[in-house]
Amino acid sequence: MTRQVVTTLPNGYWEGGALWREARLREPTGNDHIFLMEECAELLPVHWATELLARCVVNLGPKQATRDAVRSLTIGDREALLLQLRRLMLGDRLACVISCPGCKEKLDLEIVITDILQPATTNMDQEHELTIERESGESTTVRFRLPEGIDQETVASLALTDVEAAADLLLRRCILSVSNGGEVTDELPASLRERLAARMSELDSQAEISVIANCDACGGSFSLIFDATTFFLQELEAQFQRLYREVHLLAFHYHWGLADILNLSGSGRRKFLELLDRELSREMVQ
């Protein structure tokens, strides 16, 4: 009893020069939950996300998804897939607790996943160009690709100690060539680096989602970046102990084997638990 859904990737999966926009996902099972919480407990969030996607993305286009395939997806596509998996497992609404940067008041914020999922882009290119004119009259052109999961994985450890260096390395990994006045060069001016990062954000808008929040205490408004990986990881950590209780109740009352119960999705377990709760409540009344 594991639900599946077909979704459209914002950017798409490239293989052999062909672009595929459809992805098929299955809802995480109890086995997935245990693996992600126990076997992957020491992983950095980006590596944890890869493990989740590698288990629960069934197909990319017409082909079976692999770990290398989900690592090659753009950051925005991976964020979109994580949000879709969260919808399958726990629903469309995200309950967040945040702090107002002005008055430090704790705020409850509800985010609806359908509101932050971005539509598929109309861009069908795997490589992109950005050209700027310099004061000398010459132009600098950069050919680049969008950052992928494998790029995030490569810089993740560095980002723990030096965020700026990690961002620079991520950017340079995505540069295919730089030409200055028609001559190929390794130099990337600081002004072009900023423009390039901004252009990447425009092309992959799902990669960094900003949410506007309002503080009733001080009347201020502010924006924050929503990180699907971190949020989903924290939710699964909070629910992990509940998983063992659910397995115990189903095994005790239905006499099912452990493997059968753990192959159920979270929503599947909850349906049987709700039936069990109603049945036990009826027996107590009688």
What does this structure look like?
The protein is of the alpha+beta class and 286 residues long. The protein is built from eleven helices and twelve strands. The chain has helices spanning 30-39, 45-56, 67-71, 75-90, 113-116, 149-159, 163-173, 190-203, 228-254, 258-262, 266-285; strands spanning 4-15, 18-26, 57-60, 63-64, 93-99, 106-112, 128-133, 139-144, 175-180, 183-184, 209-214, 221-226. The strands form four sheets. It has a four-stranded antiparallel β-sheet with strand order 1-2-3-4. A four-stranded antiparallel β-sheet has the order 7-8-9-10. Helix 1 (30-39) packs across helix 9 (228-254), helix 6 runs antiparallel to helix 7 (163-173) and helix 9 (228-254) packs across helix 11. It is globular. It starts with a strand and ends with a helix. The mean pLDDT is 91.
In short:
By secondary structure, the chain is of the alpha+beta class. It has eleven helices and twelve strands. Helices cover about 45% and strands about 25% of the residues.
SSE blueprint and pairings:
Blueprint: E1 4-15, E2 18-26, H1 30-39, H2 45-56, E3 57-60, E4 63-64, H3 67-71, H4 75-90, E5 93-99, E6 106-112, H5 113-116, E7 128-133, E8 139-144, H6 149-159, H7 163-173, E9 175-180, E10 183-184, H8 190-203, E11 209-214, E12 221-226, H9 228-254, H10 258-262, H11 266-285
Query: Major sheet: order of its strands?
Result: 1-2-3-4
How much helix is in the residues? 40-55%
Count of beta strands: 12
Q: Uncertain spans, ≥5 residues at pLDDT below 50?
A: none
Structural class: alpha+beta
Taken as a percent bin, the fraction of beta residues is 25-35%
Gross geometry: globular
Strand count, sense and closure of the main sheet? 4 strands, antiparallel
Mean pLDDT, to the nearest integer, reads 91
Which oligomerization state do the chains in this entry correspond to?
single chain
Order of helices and strands: EEHHEEHHEEHEEHHEEHEEHHH
Specify Rg, calculated over alpha carbons.
23 Å
Our count of helices gives 11
